[in-house]
Design a protein that fits this description.
heterodimer, A: mainly beta, 22-stranded antiparallel beta barrel, 7-stranded mixed β-sheet, 6 helices, B: mainly beta, 5-stranded antiparallel β-sheet, 20 strands, globular
Chain lengths: 774, 287
């Protein structure tokens, strides 16, 4: 009867209310005379009994946990290191009991004897598959257009292979990219309209070769932020939006050090983090591909295709953080990435004789991002960071080449001042300096309406040049609260030295808390995206080209039906509209410059618009996590030469349903279903034979006047964790395109464009991976 | 630029890996123009050029109709439409009908050299108007547009550029010269069509074909370059291992067991020097 009462009290977690909150001291909860009558006592001699309570698998010490010794009914509490001690325990056999909410009850038979050493006792979590929906109202977000995916979310997103940037494609407003690419296209824009950064500093590429995986170790990231129409004044230079990769701090925590190793179909890698001192930690991680080894074996018997360097990549992500004092924090992030591929094509591609001979591609970059934060007082905070690095691209194709080596320094700084309880202001700068050494000898094919002319038919141009890039931006942002209203005005000045342009760009956000769970919001602003280097080059481009402009407007609401509960439904809907002007289009005209006719190459002749409605409904509880994104949108372009037409990324309907269910024994099953309206494409009406170059030139029909078939795909993912005392093993199986749907991804034409076939995307494709955490 | 190239290459590589049912470039089955052969690929302003189309339409039995136009190149290699339509310098060069009576080649399944026509390059006041000295030296293109159609409703549009430059005559480009089309190391006569075996075939060019020339660059510097010759192979029967070869590089031709009874068989080579120079060789089976 007494034991039953004891258990009830334990399970109700009321016991602690009846005991003194002292660690490492032992208290009898019943008279000692009763305890001494238990049969397990071997002798009247008493001994100390010590140990540590740690979380099973992760080895995280569990502090302030009640530990019971039965049947003596002694109780003690762990300290910050998870250690506990019972004094004066009669030698004998007992049961150690730990019962903590969210963990499986630990009942361990123990012996108290003179020779027994202090041991670790492992308490298993009820589940190691936790997930949480955090986008609405939970994450600290400065920008109302921001959507955030946490590490936990993107690591287990079905169909994304644990990749943080690929997972963004499940968010509303993100267009599906046709073909074999993983670029992120935002709200009817183009891939080049999306900027990628790490901790606020631009990186030149975000994906390894072929979009297989992004260039950063996912587990080194805290979250990935997605900024779309109407984003704030602290960012600029992207007319579509921003994908921000935010690194986490190295934090081995109480364990002092931790690590993991993984391997999957494509790559292997690992991460190690450790405490360097009481105030500093370091994280080192890296990944390398090995898929090239298999491809090389496959290709070795093909005498027409000699894979001289198999496609390989590696990346390294390191983080060092130090707390300088109570007010100052320092962090430095280092990121390096390299991709290589080389082959010899003996037989030219049938569509283009220029594709023949030696091909070599090497892309590498590194960035070192030191960051300093200073909280002067409760009202003033300073942030300063830099991105220092180099980019290198080597691209050789037969006699043609493109070699680029550039050095980049980006600097960001911000002062945040709380002027009153209702008014916070930020003043900052966001500058980029770069020097590039470019050597190229390459064709510049016409590429219009999504149809490229053959390289063979295009003029080879040569250029050895050094260029300098200076983009300077300063901004001032305010956040003013008045009753239920929050006004977020911002102003930004951008200077693009290459094109000698200075722009004043206003931004404005407005929020209204209609109720504690219903938020109305609107935002808008003007954005300039610098013209690309080849567009302003005097040989390949047009030095008179200006930066494209975009005006954004969005309004919508966020409703949290969860009230105060941790689970339930959230819903957000917003309308966006973008007006695009000064878009840089290819020009085939000749213009007079310095008294002679020259090719214009590019002109600011393009215009466009995109609008749509985004919806995101999410449900989460302890078992289910369901995420539904649906976007209706339209996107148009036109120019002086070409009448208004549906744009390449006009996707009327874009539907994503992601659902995950936790099962017993650390199993999790999840799935993603996608339906997207087929992208428009430009039909090719016929071909004209270019007798000099032995190739046909495509004759474009009306731009984007036909569509691919609608896209739909089901992906499934299974995760299983095995929890051992001091390690966790995870196995996942990610099956893409379970229904083996033959979605058309591109078109192959006959040599004269008289016939065509649609090329299907990937068939059912299982991917697996295993990860060991230590 | 680099992204465009990478994506294009990847896409083309993926497409090229596919087992396609689309018509093959090397197989002559429908109306084709294989080349426009100019007697002078590079000329002075105001100079005349004789142009011979190399065509094939083995299923045609009656006639082919053609039209030929000339105009100053609007910048096709930069993306301009490959046509003289709407061009203020457009001139009609020739129109006509090709029949079996046109010449021997046309009598043999309409495969080979078609009816020649003449073009006249514009004078320097026209074609060199506002052109830089670099353009004048490297050459400004005079575009030849050739449209041909058959009685079955098929048509092919073809373009060719004649370079008009102020180079001296010794510096100007000329057509490559084929010494032999060889099968298993032996030169083939025009009617020595190989049959019923696998043959190693290659071109043997006169060494004067590999011209060294000077190209002026945008920065004012000059670069000496040597011509590379690329041969494209066409067949009506059998199969080829490759459809192009470089210089004297060999190819492999699996010849048919016999020539069809209803028509001739052909093995044709078109060799190009990448500057508009062309050489043509036809081996006929059953002729």
């Amino acid at each position: 009867m007494k034991a039953a009462l004891f258990c009830i009290l334990l399970s109700l977690n009321l016991w602690s209310q009846t005991t003194v909150e002292t660690t490492s001291t032992t208290e009898a909860i019943v008279p000692a005379t009763e305890a001494s009558t238990e049969q397990t006592v071997m002798s009247a001699a008493t001994l100390p009994f010590k140990g540590r309570i740690v979380e099973k698998g992760t080895k995280i010490p569990m502090k302030d946990v009640n530990v019971f010794l039965l049947p003596l009914k002694l109780k003690t509490q762990t300290d910050n290191t998870g250690a506990f001690a019972f004094d004066n325990v009669p030698s004998g056999y007992y049961q150690l009991v730990v019962n903590v909410s969210g963990y499986k009850k630990l009942e361990k038979d123990v012996a108290v004897d003179a020779g027994v050493e202090s041991l670790n006792y492992y308490v298993e979590k009820e589940t190691y598959l936790g997930f949480e929906t955090t986008v609405i109202g939970q994450k600290q977000k400065r920008d109302q257009t921001q959507k955030t995916l946490t590490q936990e979310q993107f690591l287990s997103m079905p169909g994304s292979g644990g990749d943080p940037v690929k997972a963004v494609q499940n968010l509303p407003g993100v267009n599906r990219v046709q073909g074999f690419s993983s670029q992120v296209v935002i709200q009817g824009g183009e891939p080049k309209d999306t900027a990628y950064n790490i901790d606020g500093h631009d990186i030149p590429i975000v994906f390894h070769f072929g979009g297989l995986t992004s260039v950063v170790m996912p587990e080194a990231l805290e979250q990935v932020d997605y900024l779309s129409a109407g984003y704030g004044a602290d960012y600029s230079r992207a007319s579509g939006g921003i994908i921000g990769l935010k690194t986490r701090n190295a934090s081995p925590g109480e364990r002092k050090k931790k690590s993991f190793f993984f391997t999957d179909n494509l790559k292997l890698g690992g991460l190690y983090e450790t405490q360097l001192s009481e105030t500093s930690d370091i994280l080192i991680s890296g990944r390398a591909s090995y898929v090239g080894l298999f491809l090389k074996q496959v290709a070795k018997d093909n005498e027409d295709f000699n894979l001289t360097v198999a496609p390989e990549f590696y990346d390294i992500t390191s983080i060092y953080n130090k707390k300088l004092d109570d007010k100052q924090d320092f962090k430095i992030v280092a990121l390096a990435s390299r991709d290589t591929l080389a082959f010899v094509l003996k037989e030219p591609l049938k569509t283009d004789p220029a594709f023949r001979g030696n091909f070599y591609n090497e892309t590498q970059f590194y960035r070192v991002v030191p960051q300093w934060t200073y909280k002067q007082d409760s009202e003033t905070q300073y942030k300063l960071s830099a991105g220092v690095g180099q980019n290198q691209v080597i691209f050789d194709l037969g006699q043609q080449y493109f070699n680029l080596r550039s050095s980049v320094l980006s600097v960001r700084g911000e002062m945040e001042k709380t002027l009153s309880s209702q008014w916070v202001t930020q003043v900052g700068f966001d500058n980029v300096y770069g020097e590039a050494d470019v050597k190229l000898k390459i064709v510049q094919p016409r590429s219009e309406g999504g149809v490229s002319n053959p390289f063979s038919s295009s003029e080879v141009k040569e250029r050895n040049t050094k260029g300098r890039q200076v983009n300077v931006g300063v901004y001032n942002r305010h956040e003013i609260k008045w009753q239920q209203w929050t006004l977020v005005p911002g102003i930004r000045v951008d200077r693009f030295k290459t094109t000698n342009e200075t722009y004043l760009t206003p931004r404005l956000g407005l929020k209204y808390d209609l109720s504690p769970t219903l938020l109305l919001k609107t935002a808008g602003g003007r954005y300039y995206q610098p013209a690309e280097p080849q567009e302003t080059d005097k040989v390949f481009g047009n030095p008179d080209v200006k930066s494209p402009r975009a005006d954004h407007f969005t309004f919508g609401f966020e409703k949290d039906f969860r009230e105060t509960s941790a689970s339930g439904l959230t819903w957000q809907t917003s309308y966006f509209h973008k007006w695009l002007d000064q878009i840089v289009d290819q020009s085939f005209a000749q213009v007079e410059r310095d008294g002679v006719l020259v090719d214009q190459n590019y002109a600011n002749s393009g215009r466009g618009s995109a609008y749509g409605v985004e919806n995101q409904i999410k449900w989460n509880d302890s078992i289910w996590d369901v995420w539904l994104s649906y976007t209706w949108s339209e996107s148009f372009r036109w120019s002086d030469r070409i009448a208004k037409y549906k744009h390449e990324y006009d996707q009327t309907h874009n539907f994503n349903l992601v659902a995950a269910k936790k099962l017993d024994n650390n199993w999790k099953v999840s799935g993603r279903f996608r339906y997207v309206t087929g992208n428009p494409y430009t039909p090719i009406a016929s071909g004209v034979f270019d007798a000099d170059n032995d190739v046909y030139l495509p004759q474009r029909g009306s731009f984007y006047s036909e569509r691919y078939k609608d896209f739909y795909q089901l992906d499934l993912r299974f995760d299983k964790k095995w929890i051992y005392d001091e390690e966790i093993w995870t196995l996942y199986l990610d099956i893409q395109n379970v229904l083996n749907t033959k979605n058309s991804e591109s078109i192959e034409y006959s040599y004269n464009y008289a016939n065509k076939e649609f090329v299907s995307g990937l068939p059912i494709l299982p991917a697996f991976g295993i990860k060991g955490e230590f | 630029m680099k992204n465009l190239i990478s994506i294009s290459l990847l896409s083309l590589a993926l497409v090229s890996c596919m087992d396609s049912n689309l018509p093959k470039y090397v197989e002559l089955t429908e109306l084709r123009v294989l080349s426009l052969l100019a007697d002078k690929p590079e000329v002075n302003p105001g100079e005349s050029i004789s142009i011979t189309p190399i065509i094939s339409d083995i299923n045609e039995t009656t006639s082919l109709s053609f039209e030929a136009y000339g105009c100053i190149d609007p910048g096709v290699s930069l993306g301009a439409e490959p046509s003289c339509t709407g061009n203020p310098t457009k001139a009609t060069l020739s129109t006509g009908t090709i029949t079996a009576a046109t010449n021997t080649d046309m009598a043999q399944n309409f495969t080979g050299a078609g009816q020649s026509f003449t073009a006249l390059a514009p004078t320097d006041a026209i074609i060199f108007n506002q052109r830089s000295e670099i353009d004048k030296y490297n050459g400004v293109g005079y575009l030849i547009e050739y449209k041909i159609s058959n009685t079955r409703g098929q048509s092919v549009n073809t373009i060719k550029r004649i370079l008009v430059s102020n180079k001296s005559s010794g510096e100007k480009n000329s057509n490559p010269i084929v010494d032999q089309l060889q099968a298993n190391g032996t030169g083939l006569g025009n009617n020595d069509f190989p049959l019923n075996a696998v043959f190693t075939i290659n071109m043997l060019f006169n060494m004067t074909s590999f011209q060294v020339y000077t190209l002026k660059k945008d920065d004012g510097s000059s670069e000496n370059k040597s011509e590379e010759l690329t041969t494209t192979w066409f067949i009506t029967d059998g199969s080829l291992k490759y459809f192009r070869s470089s210089n004297h590089e060999t190819n492999e031709y699996t010849a048919p067991p016999s020539v069809p009874t209803t028509r001739k068989s052909f093995l044709i080579s078109i060799s190009r020097d990448s500057r508009g120079g062309v050489a043509y060789k036809r081996i006929c089976g059953g002729c």
